[in-house]
Amino acid sequence: MAIKKQFLKSKPVCKVTFTVPAEDANNVAVVGSFNEWNAAATPLKKLKNGSFKGTVDLESDNSYEFRYLVDGKYVNEQEADAFAWNDYAGTENSVIKL
User: Fold this and answer.
1) Of 92, 56, 53, 52, which Cα lies nearest the Cα of 75?
2) Which residues form the Glycoside hydrolase family 13 N-terminal domain (predicted)?
3) Sign of the four-CA dihedral 49, 39, 71, 92
């Protein structure tokens, strides 16, 4: 898994590209505080190499909790900037700091 950050000079936005290697998966989405944890809001597109990829514009100078939803199962980003405990889910969420 990987996260790529591209900060824009023209406005306080960071283009964040999420890449998830999930060759056997049918559906992968990124859910988090930036999209109200909505599984339908940010689906990732399957590439020919079997990974899933998508880009989201997020406001700079913020941090966001998120997880991947891979065929209905939540998965954390191993390369996240940090992890935050979530009492509601009873587990940790990935955190991205921009």
Assistant:
1) 92
2) 15-84
3) positive
Closest alpha carbon to 49 in 70, 75, 21: 21
Structural domains for the chain: 2-97 (2.60.40.10)
Q: Is 89 exposed, middle or buried (CB count within 10 Å of its CB: 0-12, 13-18, 19+)? A: exposed
Q: Which residues contact 24 (CB under 8 A, 6 or more apart)?
A: none
**Rounded-to-integer distance, Cα 22 and Cα 27, Å:** 9
